[in-house]
Design a protein that fits this description.
three-stranded antiparallel β-sheet, transcription regulation (chains A, B), homodimer, Transcriptional regulator (chains A, B), Arc Repressor Mutant, subunit A, 112 residues, DNA-binding (chains A, B), 12% strand, DNA binding (chains A, B)
């Protein structure tokens, strides 16, 4: 079974960096929360149970720099900021789908 | 886009534990290395560039306890120990496939 993983197994391959970002503890959950649609900061913090302000900010900054998340700030009082997946971000979230389904499906069997 | 992630977003859901194991930095790489077939300890260390003895041992122990990896020790001198994916482990590795392909395909574009 080839998983097209040739790149990821060599430590200096850039795909390792992408993999680290996508599979970071909170990265997986932020992407899957945004897969449902645009969310504000407060909504994101509620969706991703247990994430701190600091980790949410760092995770969003990484994904913005990676081109996976779009941040839209509206010039309003109080300020309104919304986060959404870019096309590339949606592709990443879809690539995560099978893994999330495996985790949910087999959780009892594995952790039980 | 629903990613069947209802479970994973709540912090006390067992699927989060499974997700943490699968998406740990070395977990992803050990599973993808074993997706090619049975490997000995030394072969695994060479395949997964950069992994320490300690992390390889801890990762394999976790996956054995999860029922994803099978360890076979042969009563020989010198001792021979082989690691392979169980059926559940192969399913987990397949679920990782799209994520690995995304990382390899978009590495230059994201990290570039």
């Amino acid at each position: 079974m080839r998983l097209a993983q040739d790149g990821v197994l060599t430590s200096n391959c850039p795909s390792r960096v992408v993999l680290d970002h996508l599979t970071s503890k909170w990265g997986v959950l932020v992407l899957s929360a945004l897969a449902d649609g645009t969310l504000r900061w407060g909504e994101l913090r509620r969706e991703v149970d247990g994430i701190s302000e600091k980790m949410l900010a760092a995770t969003l900054r990484t994904f913005e720099a990676d081109g996976l998340v779009h941040r839209e700030a509206y010039p309003e009082i109080p300020p309104r900021v919304e986060y959404s997946l870019t096309a590339l971000g949606r592709e990443a979230a879809e690539a995560l789908g099978p893994l999330l389904r495996f985790a949910v499906e087999h959780a009892e069997e594995i952790v039980g």
